[in-house]
DNA sequence: TCCTACAATGGACTAAGTCTAAGTCAAGAA
DNA sequence: TTCTTGACTTAGACTTAGTCCATTGTAGGA
């Protein structure tokens, strides 16, 4: 059914009912859930699933590069299943809603060498903040 | 002694020994401390200071716009006293060291209207990630 | 079908931060 | 200077998010 499940199986990821349910929750909705929300949705289908299992599974999906971890608000981390194409995030400062966005150009390019202090810069996370249409009321 | 203390007093901020010590800790070192580190350094000078007081004071300094709160790593928030001039952050993925950097150009400009979904975008946080010279070994 | 290494469980534990009720004190008024 | 009062501080309980670990379960190969 889902590309994600296919890819995981192809990579030899051991498939269990718990892992399947977590992967399906992520693949099913293109929103940015917290670990607790993933657990709640997973538990609707598999009531005995443990919180620790959800954390373990999310951690693995992140290591495999299939899911991106966001720590936008200093509160609970959120998990973004849209890892296959590069994007940035637009966050509402009122309600916390997150949208995926694609800025034009390469955000890395604007950091001059003189500002790199010898770091090997490999990644840039850009978070645009503002009020969403409903909150701007 | 410090600009920060001056400004706070000028704004009618009620000065107590606890608040003074917290402000001095922040003004004194241009590093990015966690709340706990601020508490530890404050307690060297004022042993009875409560953790809650440090949290309250940091929260107020953030509201006043004198300090910027960073939630880079999903762990403890860090506090950046360098709020008077705009800058972004370069974070080491190994050791967590943070450096202030100034990208060229306006990071807001690269987000086309078509990607704003009706949001009133007011702020952009850019985090460059990579390995610092010591960790790149 | 049987093994066994890998995965799941649940409950205790930790870290970071918030809340609350009671006590304290800075700063303006007299 | 002393008084007054509302704002500030305190200690500790509480909450939230996440980790750890010893035990139990099971996917998938032989």
Are there runs of chain A of 5+ residues with pLDDT below 50, and where?
Answer: none
Order of helices and strands of chain A: HHEHHEEEEEH
Q: Which class do the helix and strand fractions of chain A yield?
A: alpha+beta
Shape call of chain A: globular
Reading off the top of the CATH hierarchy, the class of the largest domain in chain A is best stated as: Mainly Alpha
- Name the CATH architecture of the largest domain in chain A: Orthogonal Bundle
How is the CATH topology of the largest domain in chain A named? Arc Repressor Mutant, subunit A
Helix content of chain A: 25-40%
Largest interface: A-B, 40 and 40 residues
Give the helix tally of chain A: 5
Count of β-strands of chain A: 6
Structure description:
Two copies of one chain form a homodimer. By secondary structure, chain A is of the alpha+beta class. Chain A has two domains: 3-80, Orthogonal Bundle (Arc Repressor Mutant, subunit A), CATH 1.10.10.10; 88-132, 2-Layer Sandwich (Dna Ligase, domain 1). The first copy, chain A, has helices at residues 3-10, 17-28, 35-45, 51-63, 133-136, and strands at residues 33-34, 68-70, 78-80, 88-92, 98-101, 120-131. In chain A, the strands form two sheets. Chain A has a three-stranded antiparallel β-sheet. Chain A has a three-stranded mixed β-sheet with strand order 5-4-6. In chain A, helix 2 packs across helix 3 (35-45) and helix 3 packs across helix 4 (51-63). The radius of gyration of chain A is 17 Å and the shape is globular. In chain A, 28% of the residues are buried. The model of chain A has no long low-confidence stretch (mean pLDDT 90). At the A-B interface, strand 6 of A face strand 6 of B. Chain A binds a DNA duplex (30 and 30 nucleotides) through residues 14-16, 18-19, 34-36, 48-53, 55-57, 75-77.
């Amino acid at each position: 059914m889902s590309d994600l499940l296919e890819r995981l199986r192809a990579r030899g990821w051991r498939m269990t009912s718990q892992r399947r349910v977590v992967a399906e929750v992520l693949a099913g909705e293109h929103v940015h859930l917290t670990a607790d929300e993933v657990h709640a949705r997973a538990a609707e289908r598999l009531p005995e699933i443990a919180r620790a299992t959800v954390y373990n599974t999310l951690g693995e999906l992140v290591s495999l590069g299939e899911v991106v971890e966001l720590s936008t608000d200093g509160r609970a981390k959120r998990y973004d299943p849209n890892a296959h194409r590069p994007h940035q995030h637009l966050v509402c400062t009122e309600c916390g809603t997150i949208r995926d966005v694609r800025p034009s150009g390469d955000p890395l390019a604007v950091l001059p060498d003189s500002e790199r202090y010898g770091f090997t810069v490999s990644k840039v996370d850009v978070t645009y903040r503002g009020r969403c249409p409903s909150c701007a009321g």
